[in-house]
Amino acid sequence: MNLVAGIKRTLREKLGRPDPRLLTVKTAWRLTPNMIRVVFSGPELEDFPEGREGGNCKLLLPDPNETREVFAKRLADGSSLTKRTYTVRSFDAATGELAIDFVAHGDEGPASRWASRAKPGDFLGFAGPSGPKITHFEADYYIIAADPSAIPVAAATLEAMPRDAKGTAIFEVTSLEDKQTLDAPEGIDIHWLVQPDPRVPSTAQEDFIRALDWPDGRVQTCIAGESGVIRSLRSFLHNEKQLPREDVYISGYWKIGLVEDEHQQMKRKEG
Question: What does residue 180 show for φ and ψ, rounded to 5 degrees?
Answer without folding.
Answer: -115, 155
